[in-house]
Amino acid sequence: MRLRRSIHWAKGFRIETIEKAVLSECDAVCIDLEDGVPSTRKAEARITTVQALQSLDFCGKERIVRVNAIGSDDFYKDIAEVIAIATPDAIRVPKCESVADMQIIDGLLNQIVQSKSLAPNSIEVIAMIESPIGIRNAYDIACSCERVTALNVGMEDLTREMGVVRRYEDNALDLLYARQKMVLDAKAAKVQAIDSCLLIADAGSSRRQNEEARQAGFDGRSVRDAVEAADANRTFSPSDELVRFSAGVVKAYEAGDTNENGNIIFEGKSICYAAYEKALDVLKFSKQIAVAEYRI
To answer: Dihedral angle at the C-alpha atoms of 38, 218, 164, 67, nearest 10 degrees?
Structure first.
């Protein structure tokens, strides 16, 4: 899977925000055509986004475009005037609620891929889960087609539809079931789970909530600036100590040395096959991070 520890938002009608995002440490740049764009500037945003996708060097970062809601006039204009012309690596689709939604997306993207002789499913989909029915159907949405490679919870819309205030100071308990269900559905479908952007300026709180999101199983989150991108990358990456420990676990397990009870022990911990596999995953992820080249 692609690295998506940090997905940096950029407004589609302001090319300078796109350029600024590219210069950050983020893994991916998401150009927004939806909520971050006033209705009076939608057409302008489509033109600017095409220019950015066609002319900017994204330094090896993933190029994502968030289109407008499925079925809206702006959605079909986004597909025809942006995605079909300056094809990004992925699209971020807001307010996904059903398999039928994803079939519409898949059909339109298949047409673009075929017309441009691209590889099947080369345009990936990050499905935004932002409503109670979306949470209810998250697993089916994740499994609806191969191009869906991530689920992304949208906390602003979700809390609005739930009729509650979003509690930044207690994010770990804020709609805990809904958030955890989406993560579990994503993992069951073998796709990534992306957390919502934090609309606060408290760096300490942001770091704490990154840690809570990582512990809940999220693979990354949306960010607004370079500081948040760096913090997210650090939190959603294995620590140096974990990489060191994992390398030792793998070495001890593969050596097959056991104690008098027949257990493989490394640094006082009994290493079973599941622990060995977990250590392999950590080393694989660490190597993926090491080889990522973002030329800034």
So the answer is: 20
